[in-house]
């Protein structure tokens, strides 16, 4: 039960119902057609109570006891958890006011924003996992249920809705979580740690270890990160070594260009050192 409400209209409707019932039962001097009218009026009053939201249990109580109640109890229409309450004792309310928000937390939605370049890897029904810093060691499995059709022009991301079973209500409304989409594609690629990829927002570059202290910046095409790794779609060959700690405060394409240019110049200057030495 959520609350009890007093409404003069409800009280009058209950009184009309009882008067009509007495009329229909012949409790007044009226007979014949008047009794038929009483039945119609009683049905009309009962219908009005239903339309006003009076619970069936209250209508049954009125029918059995024949007593008008000054307040009418209102029960929750569905089972769940009250996530918001605007009901205040003694407050005036009108039709259409939202008094309670009730949610079924046994199954929850999670919203995730993915980059548009990752969109080809995402599909409805795909497996997903979420973790939360507030629930250390706990992992929840679910699936992608909907991919929104529009792209956020500022962040260049697409919103994805995922659904997860939540039988113990551990996942709370408004909680931040980390989402991982499981790539179940049979296709396999080379992969490098996330830290090895320099991403300026325009292109992705890795630093290839050529050996003997020499390095080469190389532009690559990467897929969607998963499990701490980026799949390499183009730009690297199996067996090549890459620097895994290449993130040195490069925060824009111009900075990346300058850093890679300096690295290339340094490699050119040191090129003669690649020649083998004799007798030393």
Task: Describe this entry's structure for a reader.
This protein has 280 residues and is α+β, with helices and mostly antiparallel strands. The chain folds into three domains: 3-74, no CATH class; 108-181, Elongation Factor Tu (Ef-tu), domain 3; 190-272, Beta Barrel (conserved putative lor/sdh protein from methanococcus maripaludis s2 fold), CATH 2.40.420.20. It is built from four helices and 15 strands. It has helices spanning 8-24, 33-51, 56-65, 253-269, and strands at residues 3-5, 72-74, 81-85, 100-103, 107-115, 127-131, 140-152, 157-165, 178-181, 190-193, 198-199, 204-211, 214-222, 229-234, 241-242. Strands 10, 11, 12, 13, 14 and 15 form a six-stranded antiparallel β-sheet that branches. The protein has a five-stranded antiparallel β-sheet with strand order 5-8-7-6-9, with no helix packed on it. The chain is rod-shaped, with a radius of gyration of 35 Å. It starts with a strand and ends in an 11-residue tail after the last helix.
């Amino acid at each position: 039960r959520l609350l009890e409400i007093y409404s003069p209209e409800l009280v009058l409707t209950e009184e009309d119902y009882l008067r009509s019932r007495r009329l229909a039962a012949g409790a007044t001097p009226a007979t014949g057609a008047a009794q038929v009218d009483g039945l119609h009026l009683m049905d009309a009053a009962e219908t009005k109570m239903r339309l006003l939201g009076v619970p069936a249990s209250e209508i049954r109580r009125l029918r059995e006891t024949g007593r008008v109640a000054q307040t009418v109890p209102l029960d929750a229409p569905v089972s769940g958890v009250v996530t918001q309450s605007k009901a205040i004792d003694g407050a005036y309310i009108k039709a259409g006011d939202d008094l309670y928000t009730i949610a079924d937390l046994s199954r929850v939605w999670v919203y995730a924003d993915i980059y548009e370049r990752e969109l080809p890897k995402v599909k409805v029904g795909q497996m997903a996992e979420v973790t939360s810093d507030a629930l250390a060691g706990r992992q929840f499995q679910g699936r992608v249920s909907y991919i929104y059709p529009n792209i956020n022009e500022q962040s260049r991301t697409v919103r994805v809705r995922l659904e997860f079973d939540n039988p113990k209500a551990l996942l709370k409304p408004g909680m931040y979580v980390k989402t991982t989409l499981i790539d179940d594609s049979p296709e396999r690629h080379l992969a490098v740690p996330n830290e090895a990829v320099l991403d300026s927002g325009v292109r992705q570059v890795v630093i290839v270890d050529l050996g003997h202290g020499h390095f080469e910046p190389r532009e690559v095409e990467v897929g969607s990160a998963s499990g701490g790794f980026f799949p390499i779609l183009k730009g690297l060959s199996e067996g090549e070594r890459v620097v895994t700690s290449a993130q040195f405060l490069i925060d824009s394409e111009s900075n990346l260009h300058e850093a890679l240019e300096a690295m290339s110049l340094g490699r050119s200057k040191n090129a003669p050192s690649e020649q083998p030495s004799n007798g030393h």
